[in-house]
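User: My instructor asked us to take a sequence, write out its structure as tokens, and then describe one feature of it. I'm not sure where to start. Here is the sequence I was given:
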Amino acid sequence: MKTISKTIQTNMSKYNYFLMAFLVAFSFSCSPEDGNDGAVGPAGPAGANGQDGNANVISSGWVEYDESNWSALTSEFGIEYRYYPLSVSTITQDIVDDGMVLVYNRFVISNTPASMLPYSGNITGGEQQLSFEINPNTLTIKMKNVSGSGDPDTFGGPGVAEYRYIIVPSNNTGKMKNTDFSKMTYEEVMSHFGLEE
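Assistant: Let's start with the prediction itself. The structure tokens for your sequence are:
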């Protein structure tokens, strides 16, 4: 019995030694540095032209306010407003329902940085708020006194203030649903959409 056990042990040792030698030899024979690279294969077919993710974003560029474009004082649910209506044919029902519109304002006369609407500050004396609403073919900038009562007055003319809007169609908004543009600077938003400042 001892002889059989010893023979099995000896054979196992030889087997283990042989297996180890085989693995070492195999690892050296498969070195990535061996041999030359093969010839370059033929070029594949051209892919379809893709569209830039922001290709459909529409921007107005900066436009000077025209003081004569402000409406007469109008009451809306007991709050007095002045409206600045703009005809914008690219605001479709689809934009109203599923797209996104960003509106910026800057006061050139005081060299203040661009601010996203809604914006509150001393615009015409006291404290006013600029906001906006959209409907198909129309963007309306609205101004009221922060108190909600009284005439907020108007502003505009050369070198006073400018507005700019950015329209993002619904096919682009899905990938941006977790992006809070209100926490981004104007420059960061322009960079995000690949627009010139």
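For the description part of your assignment, you could build on this observation: Confidence is low (pLDDT under 50) at residues 1-5, 46-53. Try explaining in your own words what that tells you about the chain.
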